[in-house]
Design goal:
It is built from five helices and five strands. The chain is an alpha+beta fold. It has one domain (23-155): Zincin-like (2-Layer Sandwich), CATH 3.30.2010. A three-stranded mixed beta sheet has the order 1-5-4, with helices on one face. A two-stranded antiparallel ribbon has the order 2-3. Strand 4 and strand 5 (77-81) form a beta hairpin. The protein is globular. It starts with a helix and ends in an 11-residue tail after the last helix. Residues 4-12 have low confidence and may be disordered. The structure holds zinc ion (ZN). The site of zinc ion has 3 residues, from helix 4.
């Protein structure tokens, strides 16, 4: 019965113009996942991918290169190296960044604002902890979902 119920949900979802994502997400990062989905919905961003699994891992390599986070759309998987110090300090940034790759198909954006802060949390290598800089959160979230967002005043 439970199986049938699941099938009915999937079928009705496919007819629906928007099917909310179904994530397999560990509790440790669920807050950030839910936050991302909610922020997307607030902006009427339709997330086309809808079944990601987030895997919290130790050190891992893709083609011989170590990654802190890696979004693998072909396999609906985001892998995160939780042993990295950067993950521990910048967990929210790391998760939002990988969800940006996975759901929004964003590539890295490595340019800077006039004050030399990164223009985007989709930059390759410079993390921000929004708990230390709460005033940056709104801009970086806007830019994540809409790369044409105007520079913020604090970026001058
Ligand atoms: Zn990246």
């Amino acid at each position: 019965m439970k199986y049938l119920f699941t099938i009915l949900i999937f079928c009705s979802c496919q007819k629906d113009p928007y099917c909310p994502p179904i994530g397999i997400v560990p509790n440790e990062v669920k807050t950030y996942y839910d936050y991302f989905i909610n922020e997307a919905e607030k902006r009427n961003i339709l997330l086309k991918e809808n079944k990601v699994e987030i895997v919290l891992s130790g050190k891992f390599y893709v083609n011989g290169i170590p990654y802190i986070g890696y979004a693998d759309n072909a396999n609906n998987r985001i892998t995160i190296d939780t042993s990295e110090g950067s993950y521990k300090i910048y967990k929210e940034h790391v998760i939002l960044h990988e969800l940006g790759h996975y759901f929004l198909h964003r590539d890295h954006r490595n340019d800077n604002l006039p004050n030399n802060n990164p223009t985007s949390i989709m930059n390759c290598c410079n993390y921000t902890n929004f708990n230390y800089y709460p005033y940056k959160r709104e801009y970086y979230l806007n830019e994540l979902f809409c790369p044409h967002t105007e520079s913020p005043d604090w970026g001058n």
